[in-house]
Amino acid sequence: MAPGRFEKSFTQQTPIPDSGIEAAVAVMRSGRLHRYNTRGAEESEAMALEREFALWQGARFCLAVASGGQAMQIALRAAGVTPGDAVLTNGFTLAPVPGAIAAVGGRPVLAEITEDLVIDLDDLAIKARASGARILLLSHMRGHLCDMARLVQIVGDLGITLIEDCAHTMGAKWDGRASGSFGLAGCFSTQTYKHMNSGEGGLLTSDDAAFMARATILSGSYMLYERHGAGPAAEVYQALRLETPNCSARMDSLRAALLRPQLREIEAAIAGWNARYDRVAGHLAKSPAIRLPKRPEAETYVGSSIQFRLPGISRARAKAFVAVLAAVGVEVKWFGGAEPVGFTSDHHSWRYVAAQDLPRTDAILAGLFDMRLPLTFSLSDCDLLADHILSAVAALQHGETA
């Protein structure tokens, strides 16, 4: 018997905790939404969020900003990227990553990926030597970590500064070490579909005082840089404060108020996402036609979405596969399309980036599918989703979706 139609929304998030709503209402009632609009020694919600996130992440410093994209742009500027500089990144990521490089005038240099959807470290080394790039903006795309020990060795040997895009790996670890802590900086997003939800927002972490001082001024601190919950000492700013531009990319206290209770609940949320991921993955792994990315033993992941491949699928059948699932309420994204759809895109549609030849990445994306697993789904919902995917794959094999 065919599984019943799936009725839930793939974009419905869990509610903001009541304590977050109450804190946000208190901020609104005060009228003082700006992060620096405080009285005396009062700690703003943004200051408190920075302090608490730094403690949770295990970082010396944290800066709350307007978006994950701004976290990356500020990190690149603070790391010294200037117009025309080559900056390495993954050939498979989302548009804000090459967009951040382009926004600061950098020249994206794209490395191939592996079948496990992580950056190809051999190709990375080749591209680094050929381009002379001194910065790697590494995207942990869709929550998949590469061999971070080997990566650190490569960038160290080549004199490359590592900045991590952790939009999909807040809470993930490699050998017990938090993503975002392997290089100069970690960039996090609190956009609605990420692991904490403030609509838009971002967090930047680092252990480097001079870097974070530059980043703080860039974010728009004016001369109020001492009003940060996890920032460098005031003397670090003395040589930087008059030579660093203000780019006005601050997080406001209203969004910070929404985020602080979510941070207190994030470990439970991670366990919930992973239970859903493991449930769907366990079903999909039974199909010989489906390829799931390997999860190394060293990786502690956050499974808020799942990816799978149907190697060798044609464009026509991939479109039909997506359509068959959509007809029964299952929203699966395909990364092999000729045009970007919603949040999906590939390097061919980043026209602000010089065209680059990535045949292995292209072959992988041609059969790559992606599905969100929000916490609003139950485990039985996950069983139903997997049943629909397996049924569509079986129909595909029999030519029924052609």
Summarize this structure as a short list of keywords or feature phrases.
alpha/beta; Aspartate Aminotransferase, domain 2; Aspartate Aminotransferase, domain 1; 2 domains; seven-stranded mixed β-sheet; 37% helix
- Tell me the CATH architecture of the largest domain: 3-Layer(aba) Sandwich
Q: How much of the residues is beta strand, in percent?
A: 5-15%
Structural class: alpha/beta
Q: Could you state the order of secondary-structure elements as H and E?
A: HHEHEHEHEHEEEEEHHHEEHEHEH
**CA-based shape:** globular
**What percentage of residues falls in helices of 4 or more residues?**
25-40%
The major sheet is characterized as: 7 strands, mixed
**Per CATH, what is the topology of the largest domain?**
Aspartate Aminotransferase, domain 2
**Segments where pLDDT lies below 50 for 5+ residues?**
none
Task: Give the C-level CATH assignment of the largest domain.
Answer: Alpha Beta
DSSP E strands, number: 13
N-C termini distance: 22 Å
Instruction: Write out the strand line-up for the largest beta sheet, numbering strands in chain order.
Output: 1-9-8-5-4-2-3
- Per DSSP, the total helix count is 12
Radius of gyration: 22 Å
How many separate domains make up the residues? Answer: 2
Mean pLDDT: 96
> CATH superfamily of the largest domain, please?
Type I PLP-dependent aspartate aminotransferase-like (Major domain)
